[in-house]
Amino acid sequence: MRTYTLYLYPTHNWDEKPIAFFDxxxxxxKYVYNEFGKEIVEIALKKGTSIKEQAVVYSKYINGLNxxxxxxYKIRGSELLMYLCCYTxxxxxxxxxxxxxxxxxxxxxxxxxxxx
Length: 116
What we know:
Layout: E1 4-9, E2 20-24, H1 29-46, H2 51-70, H3 77-93, E3 104-109
Helix pairs in contact: 1-3, 2-3
């Protein structure tokens, strides 16, 4: 059961709508990385791609998606999920300085519905 909702804002402006939101089990970024980003990093390492090369690719993907969002292009759900995977991987590598626009993660506990 997912107990938290992770909201992803494109800038430090809280007045904007979030780019996406995802359900997650915990609030710790290590847990979110293990849940979303770990798999793409492991697959790339098995193929022989270095962490530095991965970071460049992830940052290009994030910057490209931020440009598409700024230009009001449609973004699919799978692209948003990959965005989150790339962002958590860069967070794990401590290479968020490669991204043009730093996004904000905000986690909020879900409210339980009471059936009457």
